[in-house]
Design goal:
Number of helices: 8
Pfam families: DUF7674 (PF24722)
Distance between the termini: 23 Å
Mean pLDDT: 89
Radius of gyration: 14 Å
Number of strands: 0
Protein name: DUF7674 domain-containing protein
InterPro entries: DUF7674
Structural class: mainly alpha
């Protein structure tokens, strides 16, 4: 299994206190990563956003399904929880993530909000335009 703790410590040192709790699951840590992302979105902190979304995408791309599933349910599933940030969030999600996590959004969002999210991705243009 990929050493997510080492990668997390290198990319997100501001969460070092959380990652050092080896008894905590990655789900606890990924929840904290989402809270860090919220703060960074609100502060327009591009450096932190780049590192957070880069780390999340790295976890998503790991060959072990454990990390992929964990980052999906503990991070990506929640990216639209602060509805006011939806435009900024949508631009940061790679197409392969959207395809895989959309079923999770279906049961969390109203039909109207899900339609708006779908429209956001349609407005982004061809796949590959989304940046991490």
């Amino acid at each position: 299994m990929a050493d997510w703790r080492t990668r997390a410590a290198a990319l997100l040192p501001e969460l070092s206190d959380v990652v050092e709790h080896e008894s905590w699951s990655c789900h606890v840590y990924f929840g904290e990563v989402w809270h860090l992302a919220l703060e960074a979105h609100r502060a327009a902190d591009e450096d932190t956003l780049r590192r957070v979304y880069g780390f999340a995408h790295w976890c998503f791309q790991q060959p072990e399904q454990f990390l992929t599933n964990a980052i999906m349910v503990s991070f990506y599933e929640h990216v639209f929880d602060d509805w006011d940030l939806r435009d900024d969030v949508a631009h940061r999600l790679p197409p392969e993530v959207v395809v895989k996590v959309r079923p999770l959004w279906e049961w969390r969002m109203t039909t109207e909000r899900l339609a708006e999210v779908d429209d956001l991705f349609a407005d982004l243009g061809p796949p590959g335009r989304n940046a991490v």
